[in-house]
């Protein structure tokens, strides 16, 4: 695209014609992750000021949709999958399989570019962490989180998410 090297990086800086031309000229890949797993990772990385997971979740819920951190905002509000036609949606937990396919489709040698990924270990660890941390939440927090992430849960196949229950 002709304005590829401009300093403007946000789509909102371009007009509709430029946005359409730009998006049409790129392969668009969206990486998605279970919202509850994103919350766990954010908490473990110390991005919240709370000392307990339950307090951190309350901080997230109190911040709301518009004042929240990008680390925990719903993906639908960040990536606009209903407005942007992504060519690929890659699910966290299936990275090895999906990245291999994506690299193959792009004509790249998949084996030489992929780091060693152990998806089954990651899935098992997050399942265990999810069980532990979900049990710390009140029924009200669980309900509010499911509501907060309702559009992510509707847009992406997070069938095993604790928030889907």
Automatic annotation (TrEMBL):
Its main location: Golgi. It is found in: Golgi apparatus membrane. Keywords: Carbohydrate metabolism, Glycoprotein, Golgi apparatus, Membrane, Signal-anchor, Transferase, Transmembrane, Transmembrane helix. GO terms for cellular component: Golgi membrane. The keyword Disulfide bond does not apply. It is a single-pass type II membrane protein. Belongs to the sulfotransferase 2 family. This is Carbohydrate sulfotransferase. It comes from Leucopsar rothschildi (Bali myna).
């Amino acid at each position: 695209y002709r304005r590829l090297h401009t300093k403007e990086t946000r789509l909102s800086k371009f007009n509709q014609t430029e946005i359409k031309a730009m998006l049409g000229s790129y392969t668009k890949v969206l990486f998605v992750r279970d919202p509850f797993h994103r919350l766990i990772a954010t908490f473990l990385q110390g991005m919240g000021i709370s000392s307990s997971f339950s307090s951190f979740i309350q901080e997230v819920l109190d911040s709301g949709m518009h004042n929240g951190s990008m680390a925990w905002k719903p993906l639908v509000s960040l990536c606009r999958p209903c407005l942007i036609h992504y060519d690929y949606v890659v699910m966290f937990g299936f990275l090895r399989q999906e990245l291999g396919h994506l690299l193959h489709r792009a004509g790249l040698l998949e084996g030489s570019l992929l780091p060693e990924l152990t998806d089954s270990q990651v899935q098992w660890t997050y399942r265990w962490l999810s069980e532990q941390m979900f049990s710390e939440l009140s029924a009200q927090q669980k309900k509010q989180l499911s509501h907060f992430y309702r559009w992510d849960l509707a847009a992406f196949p997070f069938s095993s998410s604790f928030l889907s229950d």
